[in-house]
Amino acid sequence: MSIPRILLGAAIAAALSVSLAAQQAPVGIHHIQCVKVNPGQQAAVQEWIDGDNHKLTQSLVDSGAYAMSLVLRTQMPAGTDAQCDYVFVTFYNGLPPAPKTREEISMALRKADIQMTAGAYNAKLSEMGKLVNDNITQYQALVGGAKKGDYLEFNSMSSPDPGACVAIEKKDWQPLAEQMVKDGNTDGWAINLQIFPRGAKDEPAVSTVDVFPSWDAFTHHYDSIRSAWPKVHGDADFASTMAQHGKLCTIEHTVLYKVVDAVTPSK
């Protein structure tokens, strides 16, 4: 495990500068870290999430270093089949800042009233779990948002044309998501493009997120879709529209998480 953001190096910074150079004010950039908990450390990890990690993250959000942060606990698939036990998502105001030095990390810990050095803190994290992978992603459209206690469904997609996949999702699903949030059946939706890594053998470049206020809302998602569809798409045939989607956006893997912490700026 690691303090979010300290693992990003010059290669990622260079890739971001190339990928996002055309954008005047990039928004929605976030760092996603997948963590697997070491045996016997589940209780310690949850205590750390509720305690020191929340304090440190709140301090960094309030300072403007982060825009907000989410901690997700995997619900399904769980156990040994789960690639990640927890996912840490850190959002930025624009491009990610440069990686922090050990001295800067120690200073951030002191500011958050955590009396540990960066070395001691990282040693504690390594005892509890290990970082499986991480990536930099940017949402292309966002509706609503997530709060602590929500369920979040993450859909990894493959596409022959990621740009076309994003375009059709924004055309058909974004208004649908807006209606479902309005109806109170979901809390949010987003479509994302992975920025780094982005090679042919990397994870699918496109993903969508559906956010639900309760387990019941999650289990009735399909009913909510069918109810909202005619409100925003009139007589358009649902099945044929989905067939068109399937040609551009193929869901390869879905994971359900629970939001166990959400940090936003203090009021």
For the CA atoms, what is the radius of gyration? 19 Å
**H and E order:** HEHEEHHEEHEEHHHE
Total number of domains = 2
* CATH fold title of the largest domain: Alpha-Beta Plaits
Give the strand tally: 8
- Unreliable stretches (pLDDT < 50, length at least 5) are 3-23
Total of helices: 8
Structural classification? alpha+beta
Can you describe what's shown?
This protein is α+β, with helices and mostly antiparallel strands. It folds into two domains: 10-137 and 259-263, Alpha-Beta Plaits; 139-258, Alpha-Beta Plaits. The chain contains eight helices and eight strands. The chain has helices spanning 10-19, 42-63, 102-111, 118-128, 162-183, 215-219, 221-233, 238-248; strands spanning 29-37, 68-76, 86-91, 129-144, 151-158, 188-196, 206-212, 250-263. An eight-stranded antiparallel beta barrel has the order 1-3-2-8-5-7-6-4, surrounded by five helices. Helix 5 crosses helix 7. The longest helix has 22 residues, at 42-63. The protein is elongated and about 60 Å long. The protein starts with 9 loop residues before the first helix and ends with a strand. Mean pLDDT is 88; it is low at 3-23.
